[in-house]
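Sync notes, pocket subgroup
Present: LS, DG
LS reminded everyone that the earlier model was apo-only. Rerun requested with fe (ii) ion included. Inputs:
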Amino acid sequence: MEFEKIFTHVDSDGDLRLLQLTDTHLFANSAMGLLGVNTLASLEAVIAQIQQDDIPFDWVMATGDISQDHSARSYERFVETVSVLEKPILWLPGNHDWQPVMHQTLSQKGLSRAKQLVSDHWQLILLDTQVTEKPHGYLEPEQLDFLARSLSEYPQKHALILMHHQSCSIGCNWLDQHNLKNADAFHEVIAPHPQVKAVLFGHIHQNFEYQSAQLAYIASPSTCIQFLPLSKEFALDRQQPGYRYLKLRANGEIHSRVRRLAGQQFLPDAQSQGY
Ligand SMILES: [Fe+2]
C-alpha cells in the first residue's frame, strides 16, 4: 500500500491549527439515530457551533467511526455536512467503518487519501488501527513501518500521531477492553523519537487528556453520544456533543480545548444497555 503525503505551509507565527471531529456514526437514512440521538442532526449542530465560534483553523481531522451503517450515503453525508467549513479534511478509519466503501466514497467526494501531513514545524501521521468487525484496535506491521519511516524522515519536526483507538488506559474498564491491543509495539516504535508530542484519538466518546513522561494522550467528545468517564460498565453521559480545537505551536507545545454544545438537545436514551 502506498502512503500519500501532503506538504502544507502555515502563517508566520508557525502555528498549525486543527479541528478534531470524531465518531460521527452517520447513517444513509437521515432520520436514524444512535441510542436515541440523531447523529446527522447532532453533527450539523456541532458544525453550526464551529461556524458560530469563528475560530481560525487550517485542517479538519476526522478520527474514525464516520459511518454507523457502512453505506456510501453515510460517507457522502459526512463530506457534505463538514464541507461547509471550507477546510481540507484528513481522515482515518474506526472500528465501525467499512473501508472499501469509505475509501471509494470519500475519494469520490474529493477528500485526500493522505496519511501524512508535513508542515513547517510539525508532521501529522494518521494510522489505521481497525481490525475488521472487531471493536478493539491493532497496528499491523505495515502501519508500524509507516510510523517508523515517517518519524525517521523528519526528526527535526514535532510529531502528532492520530489513530482511532486508545493506546493508554482511560479508566473505563469496558472501553479499555476495546483498546489498541499492541500498544507496546506502538510505544516501542515511538520511544527513540522524542519529537513525538502527542497521540490524538477518538473511539472513547469523551474528553480525555493525560500527559505521560514522554507524550500527551488526547481524545475528544463524539459529535453524537457520550460515554461516562471512569465508568467500569457501559454507561452514557448526559454531556453534549462537541469537538476539539488544537493549536500546534512552532516550539512543540500543544494548546487545545474541547467545545461542547450548550443546552440539552442531544440526550441519549437512558435505558440503553449497550453500544
Ligand atoms: Fe465511536
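DG: The longest helix spans residues 39-53.
LS: Helices lie at 39-53, 72-82, 99-108, 141-153, 173-176, 183-190.
Action: DG to write up.
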